[in-house]
């Protein structure tokens, strides 16, 4: 039997898989706290500078003339990140996302090569270590470097953890596990806001937020290796062993579970071709990757741009951050509903949500600032966050289905790399208000609309076959017309070379 049939026998989403997925999903709460840390620990309170008759000769003398009028303990108040030093707050946020970018590039192909489990556990362990370095940083420079390293690990385990939630279960549950991951991240943002409300000193907040990672690491040690990864690498016996163990823990006594054997040549082909280079060389993957990279970039820019700007909007900083987290929750039931309908599917749903998010940001440019609570800039910004969250969630699930198992992590890694470019730029977009008040929303509007239109070029994956190898991907039933033309072009080029 093939792997999908075997999962149906042992239990496509049995009790054991539910526990394993729960551990991975709950870890997203910890990851959300690390992602949003700079929003609260980088808070800039109101301050005034006493007039000086003589120009201060040292940095310390300048600090003596600064008075913070709000009772806020943050890196801004500790290291006086104001005036010419204010950019360092956004820089720390960008360094975190730069780390995410590198982590996606490194950890994705690495987990395709040596396995999901060892890469995930190693990344989570070091993220916790570097998280404590952040909390005890003696200077801004150490703080900034620690954020880069936390981002590096966060990006890696976020990618691998998401893939594991997909590969532990049957394909029919991929959309649900992907959605649960996103829901957990949104709840994590709200919980972090609540944590920040009760714990005001930034170092204590960083310690408490990071300590949950210790618990999640201990819970993750018991996770098995992905049977899909083992099978894609030609390690059929190890995959059978994992599946038998899953069946036993699910309460299914499966005595005869034999997977379809993969020949030595085919197994070697799987491992040899599972490289990032194939995303460029393979005609179908090349087109898909180009479109997906821009979609992920746009999703990240709008998602994090709106979220990181939550602390700058009027009202309570903690309520705003919580609202920008909780507003995502209605998006996920909408995702589950639409992406499983034949008339909508993955492709149309993702494109529609992106275009609607762009339209929502566009509407903010025509609303005066002093309006009611219903038709206000904040309301449309929250609506935009809800819609882009739905698109982002679909992009994760959709991308997993567009890449075959043998190169799925590499594909997700490259797309996530593009996503992190948007994340790196996101902290600086709200500051574009200095040029014009509507400039940030103009950027978000154009990004959402353009990504939505490009997403329509991708093939629909709902109820379609799941490709395990690159050879299966080249079959006609996996492609749209645009991709078929690319394959025909490649075939003609090979024939001409032989002639």
Helix tally equals 22
Reading the helices and strands in chain order gives HHEHEHHHHHHHHHHHHHHHHHHH
Give the structural class. Answer: mainly alpha
Spans where pLDDT lies below 50 across 5 or more residues = 263-274
| Span of the ends, CA to CA | 41 Å
Strand content is under 5%
Q: What is the residue-mean pLDDT, rounded to a whole number? A: 82
- Assembly form of the protein: single chain
Portion in helices: 55-70%
If you compute it from the alpha carbons, what radius of gyration comes out, rounded to the nearest whole angstrom? 24 Å
Shape descriptor reads globular
Strand neighbour order, sheet with most strands: 1-2
Largest sheet: 2 strands, antiparallel
Number of strands: 2
In words, what does this structure look like?
With 499 residues, this protein is mainly alpha-helical. It has 22 helices and 2 strands. The chain has helices at residues 3-10, 15-41, 59-64, 75-79, 87-114, 116-135, 140-167, 174-198, 202-220, 227-232, 236-249, 264-273, 278-281, 283-308, 317-326, 331-339, 345-363, 377-402, 408-425, 439-455, 470-473, 481-498; strands at 47-49, 66-68. Strands 1-2 form a two-stranded antiparallel sheet. Helix 1 runs parallel beside helix 11 (236-249) and helix 14 packs antiparallel against helix 20. It is globular, with a radius of gyration of 24 Å.
């Amino acid at each position: 039997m093939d792997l999908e049939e075997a999962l149906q026998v042992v239990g496509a989403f049995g009790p054991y898989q539910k526990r394993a997925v729960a551990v991975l999903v709950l870890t997203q709460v910890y990851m959300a706290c690390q992602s949003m840390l700079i929003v609260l620990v980088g808070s800039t309170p109101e301050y005034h500078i006493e007039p000086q008759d003589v120009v201060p000769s040292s940095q310390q003398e300048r600090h003596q003339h600064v008075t913070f009028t709000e009772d806020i303990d943050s890196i801004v108040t500790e290291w006086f990140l104001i005036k010419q030093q204010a950019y360092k707050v956004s820089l720390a946020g960008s360094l975190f996302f730069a780390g995410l970018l590198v982590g996606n590039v490194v950890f994705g192909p690495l987990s395709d090569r040596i396995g999901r489990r060892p890469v995930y556990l190693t990344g989570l362990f070091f993220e916790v270590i570097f998280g404590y370095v952040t909390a005890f940083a003696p200077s801004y420079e150490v703080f900034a470097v620690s954020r880069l390293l936390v981002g590096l690990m966060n990006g890696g385990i976020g990618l691998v953890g998401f893939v594991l939630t997909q590969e532990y279960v049957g394909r029919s549950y991929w959309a649900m596990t992907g959605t649960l991951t996103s829901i957990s991240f949104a709840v994590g943002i709200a919980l972090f806001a609540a944590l920040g409300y009760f714990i005001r000193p930034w170092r204590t907040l960083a310690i408490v937020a990071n300590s949950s990672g210790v618990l999640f690491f201990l819970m993750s040690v018991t996770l098995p290796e992905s049977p899909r990864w083992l099978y894609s690498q030609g390690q059929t016996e190890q995959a059978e062993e994992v599946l038998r163990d899953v069946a036993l823990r699910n309460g299914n006594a499966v005595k005869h579970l034999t997977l379809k054997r993969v020949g030595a040549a085919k197994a070697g082909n799987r491992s040899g071709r599972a490289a990032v280079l194939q995303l460029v060389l393979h005609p179908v993957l090349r087109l898909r990757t180009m479109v997906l990279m821009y979609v992920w970039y746009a999703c990240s820019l709008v998602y994090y741009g709106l979220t990181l700007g939550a602390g700058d909007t009027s009202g309570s900083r903690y309520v705003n951050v919580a609202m920008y987290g909780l507003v995502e929750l209605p998006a996920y039931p909408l995702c589950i509903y639409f992406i499983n309908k034949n008339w909508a599917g993955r492709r149309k749903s993702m494109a529609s949500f992106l275009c609607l998010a762009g339209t929502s940001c566009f509407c903010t440019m025509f609303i005066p600032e002093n309006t009611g609570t219903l038709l206000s800039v904040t309301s449309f910004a929250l609506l935009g966050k809800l819609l882009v969250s739905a698109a982002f969630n679909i992009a994760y699930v959709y991308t997993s289905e567009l890449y075959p198992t043998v190169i799925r992590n590499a594909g997700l890694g490259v797309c996530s790399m593009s996503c992190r470019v948007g994340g790196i730029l996101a902290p600086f977009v709200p500051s574009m208000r200095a040029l014009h008040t509507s400039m940030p929303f103009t950027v978000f509007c154009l990004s959402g609309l353009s990504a939505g239109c490009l997403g329509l070029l991708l093939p629909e994956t709902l109820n379609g076959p799941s490709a395990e190898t690159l050879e299966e991907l080249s079959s006609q039933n996996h492609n749209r017309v645009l991709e078929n033309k690319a394959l025909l072009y490649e075939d003609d080029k090979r024939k001409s070379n032989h002639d």
